[in-house]
Write a sequence for this structure.
């Protein structure tokens, strides 16, 4: 008899965005005239920039000619892209990361979810609370978390690191030493960032305790202030303790094209074993490479024109973030983020729960956001808005907020 992986049964039902989708559909059915503005889900709305479209067309043409046709991509990615990333994202910024240490993939979600496979089941994991759900859920599926406790909204064996207004949404170093530490900065959902000296403390802690940091830098392109690291490898000693994830999704609007990468330095060892060959083996066995045309598109993001165009696109989203942040403050809300990240994290008015506020916002202003509690218990009484909407929708949403003060 075939048996299922019972760990899947530990996952509580109703994935956050399905629950939101259901509520919005029900509201739309009951109010067909309502103009709903979606500031909830983290998908981009602006089209792919011209420099990337040009590269896509050229790569498609190559695929149609016998002399330039490409079949399977190399497992770890084409060297033209790995060399470009090594140069532009790392060496130019003073980080010593070689092309060989970069693994191209179809996005950060898969990499963040799959990386746990190269670690034993007896590792403990630490995550921020609130947190991007993939880190915990992928470890639940693997059987590394113990059971879910509905009363606390937490898994028994996970080390949760509260991120609160008091600590600026940057966690304290955990008292119980975890083996694997997931960090994501700029943060989804809070929009918080870590300064370089703060991140250095985590790197020192990981090296001191032989922990590995899994650093999700999917939003590094949104950093606007100085002294905030774009990569964990800006910190001394990070090559010995950290893996970094990057994505083209929010950097260049590739949510539909799909491209990302993971960095595993050759110096990173645990129990004397290098991690690089394990991930290379996993990649080679379970993955057949991101498409050639998409990797060419990724390369074009780093061209002079590509860089300028994506910078303008990000600036436009960050103007939306500014509009949201100022609009909320004017309406009397306490709100965070939105300066180095596309996310705005607002405190719900009064003592309203995140879901209560979701319902109120939908029914009174026809605006959709994301209840903070969906990212973890410390997200209760918070609410996430994103700056990825269209400008006119963002402006209209903030006008509606003026009639709904905190
Ligand atoms: C923190 C974080 N990491 C990773 C991802 C996924 O990125 P990708 O589209 O490359 O899979 C997201 C997407 O929302 C995210 O918020």
């Amino acid at each position: 008899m075939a048996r299922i992986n019972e760990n899947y049964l530990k996952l509580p039902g109703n994935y956050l965005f399905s629950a939101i989708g259901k509520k919005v559909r029900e509201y739309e059915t009951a109010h067909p005239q309502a103009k709903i503005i979606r500031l909830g889900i983290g998908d981009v709305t602006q089209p792919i920039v011209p420099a990337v479209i040009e590269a896509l067309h050229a790569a498609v043409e190559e695929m149609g000619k016998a002399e330039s046709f490409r079949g399977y991509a190399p497992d770890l990615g084409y060297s033209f892209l790995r060399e470009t990333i090594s140069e532009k994202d790392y060496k130019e910024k003073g980080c010593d990361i070689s092309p060989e240490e970069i693994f191209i993939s179809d996005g950060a979600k898969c990499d963040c979810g799959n990386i746990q496979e190269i670690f034993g089941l007896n590792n403990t994991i630490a995550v921020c609370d609130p947190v991007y759900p993939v880190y915990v859920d992928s470890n639940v599926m693997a059987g590394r978390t113990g059971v879910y406790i509905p009363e606390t909204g937490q898994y028994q064996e996970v080390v949760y690191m509260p991120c609160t207004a008091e600590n600026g949404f940057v966690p304290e170093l955990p008292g119980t030493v975890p083996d694997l530490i997931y960090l994501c900065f700029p943060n989804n959902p809070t929009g918080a960032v870590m300064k370089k000296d703060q991140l250095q403390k985590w790197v020192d802690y990981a090296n001191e305790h032989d922990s590995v940091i899994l650093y999700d830098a999917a939003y590094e392109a949104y950093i606007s202030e100085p002294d905030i690291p774009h990569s964990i490898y800006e910190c001394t000693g990070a090559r010995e303790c950290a893996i970094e994830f990057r994505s083209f999704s929010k950097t260049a609007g590739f949510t539909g094209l799909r491209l990302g990468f993971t960095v595993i330095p050759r110096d990173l060892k645990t129990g004397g074993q290098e991690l690089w060959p394990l991930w290379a083996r996993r990649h080679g066995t379970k993955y057949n490479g991101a498409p050639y045309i998409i990797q060419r598109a990724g390369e074009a993001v780093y061209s002079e024109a590509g860089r300028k165009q994506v910078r303008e696109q990000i600036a436009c989203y960050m103007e939306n973030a500014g509009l949201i942040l100022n609009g909320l403050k004017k309406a009397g809300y306490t709100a965070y983020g939105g300066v180095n990240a596309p996310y705005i994290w607002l405190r719900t008015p009064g003592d309203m729960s995140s879901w209560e506020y979701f319902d109120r916002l939908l029914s009174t202003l026809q605006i959709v956001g994301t209840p903070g509690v969906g990212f973890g218990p410390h997200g209760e009484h918070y609410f996430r808005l994103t700056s990825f909407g269209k400008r006119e929708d963002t402006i209209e949403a903030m006008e509606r907020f003026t009639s709904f003060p905190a």
Notes: Residues 42, 107-109, 112, 132, 184, 188, 216, 218, 247, 249, 255, 260 surround pyridoxal-5'-phosphate (CB under 6 Å). The chain has two domains: 14-43+307-402, 52-302.
